[in-house]
From TrEMBL:
The keyword Transmembrane helix applies. One of its GO terms (biological process) is lipopolysaccharide biosynthetic process. It is found in: Cell membrane. GO terms for molecular function: pentosyltransferase activity. It comes from the Bacteria. The chain crosses the membrane at residues 12-31, 66-84, 91-111, 140-160, 172-195, 207-226, 356-380, 392-415, 421-437. This is Uncharacterized. It is a multi-pass membrane protein. One of its GO terms (cellular component) is plasma membrane. Keywords: Cell membrane, Glycosyltransferase, Membrane, Transferase, Transmembrane, Transmembrane helix.
């Protein structure tokens, strides 16, 4: 049957969306089935805790209660293990694939609210759905896919308005779940309220949103906080690694803004004594030593206060490591046990194809991160004007990518930088790239005419 122009365009639009989605889902499941990887460091810890939840129904590590990391991902994974009847890594990869698949329509919903141009939406969706990072990280027993899924739900609830009696509590609940996964989301109600106020300039509704989402977030987080107080006799809202992370990333010996061994960080004789005492109490393992947080955090803050210039340099290096290191994290975490026969590994064709994949992923991540940060910089002026204006409102297309990017950049600037930390922002960077290209094309067309 002949389609009218608008109907034909809509038909092509949805067919293309469906084809990209099917291909994206296929690639996710194909990757975890075909490309093996070893779960290292924090990823192995998540796996061990989730397996303990499956076996003993307790959040523990090596027989001890633990709150080293946010408990959200390991607990959700442990529950999934119970439902599936096993705690194998392949089951964790299946869990990731399911969440990553559910994230696809959520990305599309977000993109449709941030741009009304179907070419921008479909282009951004194609990049985000087929992005090597979004495919490869399903292989990793880590928080990346899980926190991005929760973040997408938060953005959908933020962008799609319906009865606030339900919307605000839902926002608070999912922000709470995100905070239990990544503790810096405890500050996210402020980000949400800032976006809402700059978009509406309705102070009463903004205050209502801030209070209601904060209360519901606290209600979600508080049972875990109470659990931590009972187990560690200390107020630990989510996790106790922030002092450790701050200390090892901000000191005289840190030269790249990244992780370094605790024993290599210079410390006064008294601080060394305090560190040794806390480690001796807890099997000489930082992951089981909640008291280290109270010991290390003041020392880190003191160093930052005494060395503001070096802190700024390390912060900039952290942002460089996070956003301008390409996709090296894919080979390090998602393909580090890539198996093939020795002859194939030495084959020039094999090496060339593998390097092509890494190179293409590197270039794409560089482009996306550059677009996302450039988009923030281009909109900073408008955001500051709106902050000090009673009437100037801004669109969600400006606010949602820019304010969220600024929020993540601030966290990474202070604490730690790693290439994998850019993961939750890559889909937002995809839509900013599309918006920038579209606006640039419009400007060029106007200048030519």
């Amino acid at each position: 049957m002949y389609l009218q122009p608008k109907r034909r365009t809509a038909y092509i639009y949805w067919v293309y969306f469906a084809l990209v989605t099917v291909l994206a889902v296929y690639l996710r499941f194909w990757f975890v089935a075909s490309i093996p990887t070893e779960q290292l460091y924090d990823f192995n810890t998540y796996q061990e805790i989730a397996a303990n939840i499956f076996k003993y129904h307790s959040h523990s590590l090596w027989g001890q209660p633990v709150a080293w990391q946010g408990m959200g991902y390991s607990t959700a994974l442990g529950i999934f293990y119970i439902l599936m009847g096993n705690a194998q890594v392949q089951t964790a990869q299946l869990f990731n694939c399911l969440l990553s698949t559910l994230s696809l329509p959520l990305m599309f919903l977000v993109f449709r609210k941030l741009s009304s141009h179907f070419g921008v939406v479909l282009g951004a969706y194609t990049i985000a759905a087929l992005l090597p990072n979004h495919i490869a990280y399903n292989n990793v027993v880590g928080t990346e896919v899980f926190i991005t899924f929760l973040f997408l739900i938060i953005l959908v609830l933020q962008l799609y308005e319906f009865d606030n009696r339900f919307r605000y509590p839902l926002l608070g609940i999912f922000i709470g779940l995100a905070a239990l996964t990544k503790p810096f989301f405890l500050a996210y109600p402020v980000v949400l309220a800032l976006c809402h106020w700059l978009h509406s300039k309705d102070l009463r509704r903004t205050a209502l949103m801030l209070i209601s989402t904060s209360l519901l977030m606290a209600a979600v987080v508080s049972p875990w906080t109470i659990h931590n107080y009972k187990n560690f006799n200390s107020f630990i809202p989510v996790s106790y690694n922030s002092g450790y992370v701050l200390f090892i990333n901000n000191n005289d010996q840190n030269v790249n803004g990244m992780w370094m061994p605790l024993e290599n960080v210079p410390a006064s004789p008294q601080l060394k004594k305090d560190i040794k005492r806390e480690l001796n109490r807890n099997q000489d393992n930082v992951k089981l030593a909640p008291g280290l947080d109270k010991v290390l955090k003041p020392a880190a803050k003191q160093w930052i206060g005494e060395n503001p210039g070096d802190f700024m340099k390390l912060g900039l290096l952290r942002l460089k490591q996070t956003f301008f290191s390409g996709a090296q994290d894919i080979s390090a975490w998602a393909m580090n046990d890539f198996q093939s026969n020795p002859g194939q590994k030495e084959s020039p064709r094999f090496k060339r194809n593998l390097n092509f994949f890494y190179g293409a992923a590197d270039i794409l991540v560089y482009i996306l991160c550059s677009a996302g940060i450039l988009y923030l910089l281009l909109n900073l002026g408008s955001i500051f004007k709106s902050l000090f204006s009673r009437d100037l409102t801004l669109s969600n297309a400006i606010l949602v990518p820019s304010i969220n990017t600024a929020f993540f950049l601030a966290v990474y600037f202070v604490f730690e930088g790693q290439p994998r930390y850019n993961f939750p922002l890559l889909f937002l960077f995809a839509i900013t790239l599309g918006i920038i290209m579209h606006k640039t094309s419009q400007g060029l067309q106007r200048s030519e005419s």
